[in-house]
Task: inverse folding
């Protein structure tokens, strides 16, 4: 069956067979609830599950597709299309699949679809998720409900990574780009409107029919446009509510806020090799890097700049992430001690330095500049697009880099191998090590953690590596923020640490 014929069969409310939804209510039966309206302040590009790695797109496609495993709202690993898995030896895993599952087009799910999807995610030239499968050398069908995964060595966080590999049909896995996604998830893709909105309908699949039968995902170019629709009661769930509008929502009848956890740590990378003049020598001194952190009044930022929606970071990873160390206390704000350390390092009058940052509208850059000026460190901010900041930082042309990192795999190696491990020749470690930090002992701990299959021993290795990095401070941990979703009185929502919208957990209010 051609793609066009399949789409015509699956969508009941098309106009002339075009792959767009004619209207939000054209198929609504008398007495039905109007579709749930969900708004984002960004929009997907491709909706191919393997050719994207974009936060909003994960929220959309996560309702359409399943992976072998998934994260709970608190980032605990749970079965999905896999019901169990066992390690046969250091390089082989046997995965038992869920029986009786069907795709949205009615075709049965089997091991063949898993093999095809893993191969596509690994080998498609435009794959944006192949890094999650580093070390996976192949997938093999044993029988319809059993798959063997082969790796080049032990991968202790393999199944954390597999949460990002959505399973498509074997037929669609052959396509250059999937434009009409067909999955096994709780919602099936109906189509797109001319404005880019995506309509989803509940699927009576292996989980049963979700309570919210129809939902429309709407995408806006900025916070103001999305907020206006929400305050006009045209939106049921506003995924990201601007901090300065939280109080206003709480005074509006029929609207409320729900706290939205965030995994991302706000960070300041220090790159001595990118600095010039006295700053190059200063930033190479661990005493100076500690002085910078001591000078930052992070509690004040949280109260004023972040409207109270955050906490001072004691380390690089969120408390729900494997490798978080509860014994580490945050470094306090102490400008006097910061000035003493600067003087001790030979910089009593400070130095000049440039700070690169992306589009940050919260006032945090201004706070950093002000706090460091108080100890004599004169910062010149440089605003660029995130892509340009990334390019400049990788090229070693920014001496301070403000950025954020979320350990989306739920594992500290996600950050530590990327931003703390020294860059290796293969190019798969230290790819965002802006600071140039290279400590053989830290590298050895991280490499041991990557081989350690015992969860407790591995956790300890990650914690030890993080402690070494925090002693040297090539990257300064700043803060963890949380946000709010705007929610209408029609619905109860469940927020998640990975910030994805999971419609199957939502419930209508009576």
Result:
């Amino acid at each position: 069956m051609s793609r066009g014929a399949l789409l015509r069969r699956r969508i009941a409310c098309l106009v002339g067979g075009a792959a767009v939804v004619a209207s939000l209510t054209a198929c609504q039966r008398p007495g039905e609830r109007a579709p749930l309206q969900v708004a984002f302040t960004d929009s997907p590009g491709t909706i191919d599950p393997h050719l994207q790695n974009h936060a909003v797109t994960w929220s959309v496609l996560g309702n359409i597709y399943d992976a072998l495993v998934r994260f709970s709202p608190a980032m605990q690993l749970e079965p999905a299309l896999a019901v169990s898995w066992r390690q046969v030896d250091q390089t082989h895993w046997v995965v038992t699949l869920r029986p009786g599952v069907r795709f949205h087009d009615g075709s049965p799910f089997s091991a063949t679809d898993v093999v095809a999807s893993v191969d596509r995610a690994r080998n498609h030239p435009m794959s944006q998720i192949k890094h999650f499968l580093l070390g996976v050398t192949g997938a093999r069908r044993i029988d319809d409900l059993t798959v063997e995964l082969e790796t080049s060595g032990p991968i202790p966080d393999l199944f954390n990574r597999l949460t990002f590999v959505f399973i498509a049909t074997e037929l669609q896995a052959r396509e250059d780009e999937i434009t009409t996604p067909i999955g096994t998830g709780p919602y099936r893709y109906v189509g797109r409107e001319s404005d880019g909105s995506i309509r989803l309908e509940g699927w009576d699949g292996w989980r049963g029919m979700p309570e919210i039968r129809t939902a429309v995902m709407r995408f806006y170019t900025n916070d103001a446009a999305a907020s206006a629709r929400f305050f006009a009661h045209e939106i049921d769930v506003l995924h990201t509510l601007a901090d300065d509008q939280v109080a206003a929502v709480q005074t509006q009848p029929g609207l409320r806020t729900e706290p939205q956890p965030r995994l991302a740590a706000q960070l300041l990378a220090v790159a001595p090799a990118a600095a010039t003049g006295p700053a190059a020598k200063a930033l190479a001194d661990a005493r100076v890097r500690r002085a910078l952190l001591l000078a930052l009044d992070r509690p004040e930022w949280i109260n004023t700049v972040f409207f109270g929606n955050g906490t001072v970071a004691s380390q690089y990873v969120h408390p729900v992430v494997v490798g978080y160390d509860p014994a580490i206390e945050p470094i306090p704000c102490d400008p006097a001690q910061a000035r003493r350390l600067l003087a001790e390092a030979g910089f009593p009058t400070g130095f000049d330095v440039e700070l690169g940052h992306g589009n940050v509208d919260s006032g945090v850059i201004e706070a950093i500049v002000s706090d460091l000026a108080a100890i004599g460190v004169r910062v010149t901010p440089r605003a660029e697009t995130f892509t340009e900041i990334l390019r400049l930082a990788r090229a070693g042309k920014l001496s301070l880099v403000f950025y954020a990192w979320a350990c989306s795999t739920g594992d500290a190696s996600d950050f530590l191998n990327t931003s703390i491990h020294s860059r290796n020749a293969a190019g798969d470690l230290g790819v965002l090590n802006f600071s140039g930090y290279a400590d053989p002992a830290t590298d050895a701990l991280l490499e041991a953690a990557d081989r350690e299959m015992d969860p407790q021993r591995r956790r300890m290795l990650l914690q030890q590596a993080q402690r070494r990095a925090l002693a040297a401070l090539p990257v300064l941990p700043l803060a963890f923020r949380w946000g709010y979703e705007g929610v209408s009185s029609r619905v109860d929502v469940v927020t998640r640490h990975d910030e994805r919208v999971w419609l199957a957990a939502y419930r209508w209010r009576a």
